[in-house]
């Protein structure tokens, strides 16, 4: 059997896909210097209800349009009340584990953010957000891959971009090297009867990379001991956050990590302070908080950003849920983040202020947030190529 392995190499191992490897000698280790920035993107697939995550209790219209699913204002008694942030906005009580990050000044919230494209299709909206080109479907690569293309260094690690997903997500698709792995412990090479031969060739061509492959293969999440008292949820999302922490600590040259979590399409029985959405938010917030605490001092190099394709309708429907909407909110946290603040211009919830008379209006393009983090934290060199035909608004200065 003749095997040819080139610098454009696809490595598939059931739960692993490594695409576009371009490795050289001495390229992986010693990359955790103090100013080595890392960006972690987390996609809430299904359109998360930003109005429930970050509650605008100060808007007098909020409680009128959501009589059953509104979150009780902070002045009420009991553990179901919203957690006051600034006298106008509050966190859902299920996100209480994130409040200390906000108080420490390392969690920022961005509200009324979304896409200028007005589609209510999950598929189209996710594609627009992950391509970074809302309204245009002809762009083949994703915005995170374009960042990696424009900021590539000689001898860059093939572990620059990693997704904790079964396949490479739209955001990371493109010619720059990317890896998708559902489980860190399962990372390896599989080629049927030819596995040993492939591993031998791969180890000679990319010795540093192969050492990292062997290291990741033995990184068993069951034996991993989180630091600083961090407790990850036992759910798939919690374990994904744990594995991202493993990758950051492994010092393999990681620059961009991607993860996603579903379950946000709450058309029925959404609940208020308790219920379906609350359970999902508890898992979500606790997973993010565990990642933050586990990484400890390493968070000085890390920015985490959450996103969702669009929000939910302002008015609850007849099934006790919410239908597809427009704007939602983002969470940004990390050492470089200027937190303790809710960013964005609030458009209001009066009928005449709503998008198409039913949704929270978008007052900030999601690319404003993406581009600022890439420029100010990741030192992006060519933001115009990453987000073609886009001109950013005034800087938010989140980082």
- The gyration radius over C-alpha positions equals 21 Å
**Share of residues in helices:** 25-40%
The number of helical elements comes to 11
Distance between the termini: 53 Å
Structural class: alpha/beta
Total strands: the figure is: 14
The total number of structural domains is 1
Name the shape in a single word.
globular
Question: Unreliable stretches, pLDDT < 50, 5 or more residues?
Answer: 1-34
CATH topology: Alkaline Phosphatase, subunit A
CATH class: Alpha Beta
Calculate the mean pLDDT score and round it: 88
The main sheet comes to: 11 strands, mixed
Order of helices and strands: EEEHEHEEHEHHEEHHHEHEEEEHH
Structure, described:
The strands form two sheets. Strands 1, 2, 3, 7, 8, 9, 10, 11, 12, 13 and 14 form an eleven-stranded mixed sheet that branches. The chain has helices at residues 50-53, 62-65, 99-103, 122-131, 143-150, 195-205, 207-217, 236-249, 276-295, 366-376, 383-386, and strands at residues 11-12, 16-19, 38-44, 54-55, 83-84, 90-91, 107-114, 161-163, 178-181, 256-261, 302-308, 328-334, 341-343, 364-365. It has eleven helices and 14 strands.
């Amino acid at each position: 059997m003749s095997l040819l392995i080139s610098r454009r190499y696809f490595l598939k191992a059931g739960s692993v896909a490594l695409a576009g490897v371009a490795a050289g000698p001495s390229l992986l280790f010693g990359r955790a210097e103090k100013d080595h920035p890392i960006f972690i993107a987390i996609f809430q697939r299904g359109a998360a209800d930003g109005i429930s995550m970050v509650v605008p209790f100060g808007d007098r219209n909020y409680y009128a349009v959501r009589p059953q699913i509104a979150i009780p204002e902070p002045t009420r008694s009991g553990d179901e009340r919203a957690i006051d942030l600034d006298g106008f906005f509050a966190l859902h009580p299920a996100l209480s584990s994130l409040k200390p990050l906000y108080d420490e000044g390392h969690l920022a919230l961005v509200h009324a953010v979304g896409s200028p494209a007005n589609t209510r299709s999950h598929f189209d909206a996710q594609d627009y957000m992950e391509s970074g080109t809302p309204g245009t479907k002809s762009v083949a690569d994703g915005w995170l891959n374009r960042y990696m293309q424009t900021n590539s260094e000689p001898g860059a690690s093939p572990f620059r971009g990693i997704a904790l997903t079964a396949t490479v997500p739209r955001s990371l698709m493109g010619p720059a090297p990317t890896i998708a792995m559902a489980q860190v412990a399962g990372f390896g090479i599989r080629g049927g009867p030819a596995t040993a031969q492939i591993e031998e060739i791969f180890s000679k061509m990319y010795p540093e990379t192969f050492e990292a492959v062997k290291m990741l293969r033995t990184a068993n999440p069951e034996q991993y001991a989180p630091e600083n008292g961090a407790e990850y949820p036992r759910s798939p999302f919690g374990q994904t956050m744990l594995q991202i922490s493993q990758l950051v600590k492994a010092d393999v040259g990681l620059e961009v990590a991607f993860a996603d979590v579903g379950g946000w399409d709450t058309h029925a029985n959404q609940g208020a302070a308790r219920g379906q959405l609350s359970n999902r938010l508890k898992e979500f917030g606790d997973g993010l908080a565990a990642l933050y605490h586990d990484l400890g001092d390493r968070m000085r190099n890390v920015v985490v950003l959450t996103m969702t394709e669009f929000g939910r309708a302002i008015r609850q429907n007849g099934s006790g849920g919410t239908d597809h909407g427009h704007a939602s909110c983002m969470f940004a946290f990390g050492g470089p983040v200027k937190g303790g603040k809710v960013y964005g211009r609030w458009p209001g919830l009066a009928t005449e202020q709503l998008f198409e008379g039913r949704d929270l209006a978008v007052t900030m393009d999601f690319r404003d947030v993406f581009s600022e983090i890439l420029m100010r934290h990741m030192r992006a060199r060519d933001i115009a190529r990453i987000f073609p035909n886009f001109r950013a608004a005034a800087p938010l200065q989140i980082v």
